[in-house]
Amino acid sequence: MAASGHRRALDRFRRLRALSRAAGKALPGRTRIEHGLAHAALATAAALVAYVPTHALGLKEGFWAAITALVVVQTEFAAVRSTARDQLLGAVIGGVVGAAAAMLLMPSLARYAAAVAGSILLAWICNVASSARLSAVTVTIILLVPHQNSAGQMMIARLSEVGWGIVAGIGVTWPALALSRRKRRAEGKQ
C-alpha cells in the first residue's frame, strides 16, 4: 500500500515538473530574456563574491567556492536552501569518506571505486539521497585530483571552499529575491 502511494506521488511530481517546464517554455521571448538577464546577474555576482576574497580567506583553490556559488544560485529561495544543503552534506559525506579511503592500504582504483560507492550509499542511508552525487564528486576530488597536502587537509580545504561558496550564493540570492518579492507586491498594489 505504501509503495503504491509513493508511486502515485512520484507520478504527480513528474507531471507537475513537466507542466512547469512547458509553462517556462511558453513564456514570451522578452520575459525569458529579462529572467535570463536577472539570473545571469545574480549568478555572476555570487561567483565573484565567492571567488574574489578566497586568497584573503586562506582558500588556495577558490574556483571551488565559485563553482559552489553558481550551483547554489536559483530563482526561488526554497531551491537555494535545498541546493545549499545538498552541496554541504555532499561535501561532508564525500570529504569524510574520501579522507578515510585515502588511508586504506589497497590499490588506488579499487580504493576510489569503494569510496565512490560508499559515499553514495552513506548519503542514502543518512536519508540525503539528493547529496549522493555531490558526495561522490568530493571523493573524486580528494582521491583523484593531485594535491600536495594530506587527504585530511584537502577535505578541510574542500569543505571550507564549498562552505564559503554556499555563504556567497545565499548572501547574494537572499536579498535579491527579497527585493524581487517586495517589488512584485508593490506592483500588485498599484
What does this structure look like?
The chain is flat, with a radius of gyration of 20 Å. It has one domain. It contains seven helices and no strands. With about 190 residues, it is mainly α. The termini are far apart. The longest helix is centred in the last third of the chain and has 39 residues, at about 150-190. About 80% of the residues lie in helices and about 0% in strands. The chain has helices at about 1-25, 30-50, 65-70, 75-100, 110-125, 130-145, 150-190. α4 crosses α5.
Provide a concise account of the structure shown.
By secondary structure, the chain is an all-alpha fold. 81% of the residues lie in helices and 0% in strands.
The succession of helices and strands, N to C, reads HHHHHHH
Mean model confidence by pLDDT:
86
Distance between the termini: 50 Å
The biggest beta sheet is recorded as: none
Number of helices: 7
Helix content: over 70%
Percentage of residues in strands: under 5%
Helix/sheet category: mainly alpha
Which residues sit in consecutive blocks of at least 5 with pLDDT less than 50? Answer: none
Number of strands: 0
Q: Nearest-angstrom radius of gyration?
A: 20 Å
Give the CA-based shape: flat
Number of domains: 1
